[in-house]
Amino acid sequence: MRKATTTVIILVTMALVAALAAPALAETITYTTSFVNRLGNTITVETTYVDGVLTSQVMREVQPDGFLKMLKTWEYYPNGMVKTSEEWRYSATSPTHITRQYSDTGVLLSQVAELYLNGELAVKSIITYDSTGLLLTQEDRILTTLADGTQVWVVTVSTYAGGVLVSSITKEYPYGYNFDAPTEASLEERPGWGHGDTNHDHTGPGGKENKHDGGNGGAAAGGNEAIRPGNGYGDDNHQHTGSGQK
């Protein structure tokens, strides 16, 4: 009997060790609730938890004819505060789209609002706030038709300090201008010790005249002119190891 008891204890111990060694799988549970509001539209809310912690919600409002009128989504921090929110309000002619980002203490940090007219972006507003919720910057873009029929973006950029307006600049940009395209840093702000000089020094190892011998690069040194000294190796976008300077 003692031997059997010992065997059971050993088996239970082995099972516990195996369970602890196995990778833990997060348990995801989504609850769905629906109701009809006073307009006759159906509201559906999906709430998702991972290991008992609220992570996201999705809310849809659908009209009786099946048209999706509104879509809202939320993502949450582990402490239950809203991390991001996104809202679409649909219409046949002028849908809107708003995204917001928050700190883990509930402070609104940024907001992007868009208005579409006849399927085309017509107005966009980008607002940022500091860690206390005070306004920092606001950029308003409005698609405008001039007297000659030309369309341009009228863009107003305002900056604030302590929530108080300190400057505001308005410019026009051509229709189709890509506001999201990366802008090349000026020569004066390049990283390393270039200081805006395209012929600046490098601190990397000497360049190669070709792949098989160790020429030091550069026509003046008898090397291949296309291969620069240092770690540039002929690439205009080569890296630097110096600290950033202005």
Give a quick rundown of the structure.
The chain has one helix spanning 2-21; strands at residues 28-36, 42-50, 53-62, 68-76, 82-89, 96-102, 108-117, 120-129, 135-145, 151-161, 164-174.
Unreliable stretches, pLDDT < 50, 5 or more residues?
Answer: 1-19, 186-190, 211-228, 242-246
CA-based gyration radius: 30 Å
Shape, principal axes of CA atoms: globular
Helix content percent band: under 10%
What can you see in these coordinates?
- The protein has an eleven-stranded antiparallel sheet, with no helix packed on it.
- The chain contains one helix and eleven strands; from the N terminus they run H-E-E-E-E-E-E-E-E-E-E-E.
- The chain has two domains: 24-174, Outer Surface Protein A, domain 3 (Alpha-Beta Complex), CATH 3.90.930; 184-246, no CATH class.
- The protein has 246 residues and is mainly beta.
What characteristics describe this protein?
single chain; 246 residues; mainly beta; Outer Surface Protein A, domain 3; 2 domains; 11-stranded antiparallel β-sheet; globular; disordered N terminus; disordered C terminus
